[in-house]
Amino acid sequence: MNEVSSFRLYVLRALYLFIVAGLCLLVWPGIIHESQHWEFMEGTVSCMLAAFSLLCALGLRYPLQMLPILLWEALWKTIWLSIVALPQILSGHIDAPQMSAIVNCSFVVLVYLTMPWRYVYKHYVLKSADPWSPPFSGRTVEAAQ
User: Fold this and answer.
1) pLDDT digit string (tens) for 45-101?
2) What angle do CA 125, 66, 55 make, to 5 degrees?
3) How is the chain split into domains, by residue range?
4) DSSP assignment of 92-125
5) SS3 content of the chain, % helix, strand, coil (to 5)
6) How confident is the model at residue 1 (pLDDT cuts 50, 70, 90)?
7) 76-87 residue pLDDT tens
8) Which residues does 87 contact at the CB level (< 8 Å), separation at least 6?
9) Could you give the count of Cα atoms lying within 13 Å of 92 in the half-sphere of its Cβ?
10) How many other β-carbons are positioned within 10 Å of the β-carbon of residue 38?
């Protein structure tokens, strides 16, 4: 029996496609056409988003294996919304660029809705960790040579 339904896999692929398409429209033109001069942080963020879009493209083929990239996305956006954006909202000190970032980060709700949480729990919480070293084979290093 499949752990994740075909429907859920298609929903995950749709999310990966949505991310890839959005970043192809918003980020990749600036990456491809280097005529734009970026400040340090703007260039860093754009390059990170470009790499993220490439990993999400890989998620179209391997939706479950690429779940960690979606988990990373959900975590950083949730943390940012909680400790950066929320205090600004509560204090009433929001400008247009901050509001744009808040709106963009709010799309994280799509990740939470599409994530196969039982699969994540089973494979990332309950599953035994990989060993820190290879299992002992009973042979010494000298005998192997």
Assistant:
1) 889 999 999 999 999 999 999 999 999 999 999 999 999 999 999 999 889 989 999
2) 145
3) 6-127
4) T---HHHHHHHHHHHTHHHHHHHS-HHHHHIIII
5) 70, 0, 30
6) very low
7) 999 999 999 999
8) none
9) 0
10) 13
What is residue 63's three-state secondary structure? coil
Q: Does residue 98 contact residue 85 with C-beta atoms inside 8 Å?
A: yes
**pTM for this prediction:** 0.83
Tokens of 54: 């490439």
> How far apart, in whole angstroms, are the C-alpha atoms of residue 24 and residue 61?
18
CA distance 49 to 77: 13
Q: Write the single-letter amino acid at 30.
A: G
Query: Which residue type sits at 75?
Result: L
Is there a contact between 70 and 115 (Cβ–Cβ < 8 Å)?
A: yes
Distance, in Å, from the CA atom of 69 to the CA atom of 113, rounded to the nearest integer, reads 15
